[in-house]
Amino acid sequence: MKLKKVNRKKRDPKIRILAKKITKIPSTTEVKKGILGVEELVIEQTKFSQSTQAPRPYRTHPQDLPYQYDLDRIILQVRDPWWCHAYWEIRTQTLDRLRNELAQEFYQAKRILRVYDVSHIIFDGNNAHRFFDIKLNESVNNWYIDTQGPGRSWCVDLGLLLSSGKFITMVRSNTVHTPLAGPSWITDEEWMIPEDMFARLYGMGFGLGRSSPVGKAWQEGVKHVLSSGVSSGASPVRPLVKEKKFWLVANCELIVYGATLPDAKVTVQGKPINLRRDGSFSLRFALPDGKQVISVKAVSCDGKDERTVTPIVVRETK
Question: Cα(186)–Cα(284) distance, rounded to whole angstroms?
Fold first, then answer.
């Protein structure tokens, strides 16, 4: 029996399409789509999707600080009541300029750290209470300074001390104040209460007129307490006569303090005051309502120099 050859080219196109449909194997996505549904399939695909944003670069930090910042500067800082610390930087251009200006004197000069005591003054470079020098090597760029003076203000110059004794400042530091090594030595040992203010503060302040006999007696009694009982802790604001069990008194005081040279003459509101051994002073004033002008004047021992500072204080009680 002979078999006929089938010519594939002459096969009916409909049969070929049907054959493709029968032999086509469904994909995994299509199977899942039929089982899970369209919405469930979208959720499954997005659940494992990765972000398309570029990853953030890691933050980098410099490993070491620069050795120099190309600045002429010196910084002074406090370590404790007795010690300060200074660190500095001098540019090469600055040293080259000084080398050209001073010529041979530059090589004979000493590098000096000059420490100034500038307590209670505005330092201008020439009016320090005292100073001392620390000789440095060229290679150092910081130094611990033993001030031996707690509770003082200090400023430092880094410069060159020439063989002639002239000091050339290269950089000047900030001013710092060392804390006290113990309790404050400032005591409120003086009272200055002008008579006209006293009547307003302790008489009219509590509703007692200046011309009232009761008010006058009450003022004299409180004044006696101030003059004799302040050091023993007596309170100058407690009234001597109480008509009711419940009462309230509130007042203010003003403390004026300062310092100058120990041998100067100082007046406050035209009245001379005594200075302490270091030239400091402190005063307590009654502070009634209104404007108070307190003039503080200092005159040097030779009478050639004079300075005046006038604090103005305004009080309003409601």
Answer: 12
Total Cβ atoms within 10 A of residue 76: 19
Q: What is the pLDDT of residues 168-195, one digit of tens each?
A: 999 999 999 998 876 665 555 555 656 5
- Please give the angle made by the CA atoms of 97, 103 and 107, to the nearest 5 degrees: 95
For residue 3, give both structure tokens.
Answer: 């078999």
0.90 surpassed by pTM: no
Backbone angles phi, psi at 164, to 5 degrees: -80, -10
Q: Where are the chain's structural domains? A: 73-177, 191-315
SS3 112: strand
What fold does the segment set 73-177 form as a domain?
Immunoglobulin-like (2.60.40)
DSSP per residue, 177-217: EPPPSSS-------EE--HHHHHHHHTGGGT--TT-HHHHH
Structure confidence by residue, pLDDT tens digits, 50-101? 555 666 666 666 667 777 788 899 999 999 999 999 999 999 999 999 999 9
